[in-house]
Amino acid sequence: MKRSALIIEDSGDIARLVRLHLRDIGCRADIAGNGEEGLRLFQSRSYELVILDIMLPGMDGLGVCRVLRASGDYVPILMLTAKSTELDRVLGLEIGADDYLSKPFSIPELLARVKALFRRTDALKERAASALPDKTLHYGDLTIEVGKRRVRLGSLEVSLTAREFDLLLHFARHPGQVFSRAQLLDQVWGYSHQGYEHTVNSHINRLRAKIELDPAKPKHVLTVWGVGYKLAEAES
Known about the structure:
five-stranded parallel beta sheet, Rossmann fold, single chain
């Protein structure tokens, strides 16, 4: 099956090199040299992956990432950047990037990351297709409509990002089971790289701020000290 990717990278040499090797794994790719052009292409065509450089002329990669995540159409984002500090890496992940690769990078590592993202999105589609459209889960005042990817707190609909919903749904599929940060990275994000566990904490905090009446005293997503997190058992 032919894949499609959008490369947003201002270095023509790097962009063409990446496109060349993506073809080797059956993935066609378009190239945009700046953020604005990338957004125009994204809005006019359908892509299964965005490879995004942070340091772009005009709108930078972080700004592009924010716009893509606000669009509501989920597509995995692999960020490329010459920056390698922890702060830069965390910021990219926190605003919605799925993975992060620092320049200079090896082509085999790039292709391995791309294949992992494709496997993850395929798995998400399979799970969504197998879920009953009218499947609804109840956890006290919290309601999760699986097929519609909709969450309500009491009578109010809660707006979750794609990643926040995936995280909540993963907990909901395994109520009461404790997951470490590394396990959540592997099973929800699709990778488990040492040093990335803190992004789980931030997503948990944002999720609690949206679904808990009192985020300081959560009753849905619970911390198991020294181990990880779990979702409280669903009420019958």
